[in-house]
Design goal:
212 residues, Glutaredoxin, 6-stranded mixed beta sheet, 2 domains
């Protein structure tokens, strides 16, 4: 009887310890939760991949993120997407409107920018990105679109930032969707849900204002 009780106690303790380890002391219960917590605890530097777009000459991603000295909210998409990318586009339209309404100080541009990165470089060339941006009425001073032309560099970027992209067998992709906030040093410092659009904007603004 005592041995059974002790064995049960040990199993419970082992289970508790395993759960604590897997969930970062019970703070994360899914892979996405764990990703967000890890990023908040240890910001992830964007790799020096070359990006290009209609309003961004070919340059390394960290340099592009650092250009205006503020914060950048980033998403990943592809122009032919008919599902989650529509929600991302709508969310970024709302963010753009909020940034334009807020403006800068003394006529300065907002210190929070938006950047949409396509992971379908084979189809999303510069012309396709330009047409897509126009369709969303994107203001290049606030919201830009780029792609990573080199496939190896693209895969390295997706892995580094925890973006999951899987071909769906019908010419499209299944992918996770989030709002990624980067600082002026090109580091991903927070990950927000689409439903946390306002939180992402508030955090990015706070981050940008903290810069001299």
């Amino acid at each position: 009887m005592l041995r059974t009780a002790l064995a049960s106690m040990l199993l419970l303790l082992a289970g508790w310890a395993a759960a604590a380890w897997l969930t970062h002391d019970f703070q994360a219960w899914t892979d996405e939760d764990a990703r967000r917590l890890e990023v908040a605890l240890a910001p992830v530097a964007a790799p020096a991949v070359i990006v290009e777009g209609p309003d961004a000459a070919a340059t390394e991603l960290p340099a592009l993120l650092a250009q205006h000295g503020g914060a950048t909210i980033v998403d990943f998409f592809y122009t032919r997407c008919e599902t989650v990318c529509r929600s991302l586009g709508s969310s970024f339209q709302q963010l753009q409107a909020a940034l334009q309404a807020g403006g800068g100080h003394a006529g300065q541009a907002p210190r929070v920018r938006l950047l949409s990165i396509s992971f379908d470089a084979a189809r999303d060339d510069v012309q396709a990105l330009r047409a897509y941006g126009r369709g969303l009425r994107a203001d290049p001073a606030v919201w830009r679109f780029v792609r990573v032309h080199d496939e190896a560099q693209q895969q390295a970027l997706l892995r580094r930032l925890g973006v999951v992209v899987v071909a769906d067998g019908r010419g499209g992709y299944e992918h996770n969707a989030a709002l990624l906030v980067f600082d002026a040093q090109g580091r991903m410092v927070r990950v927000f849900d689409l439903a946390e659009q306002q939180l992402a904007l508030d955090y990015a603004r706070h981050l940008a204002q903290a810069r001299p």
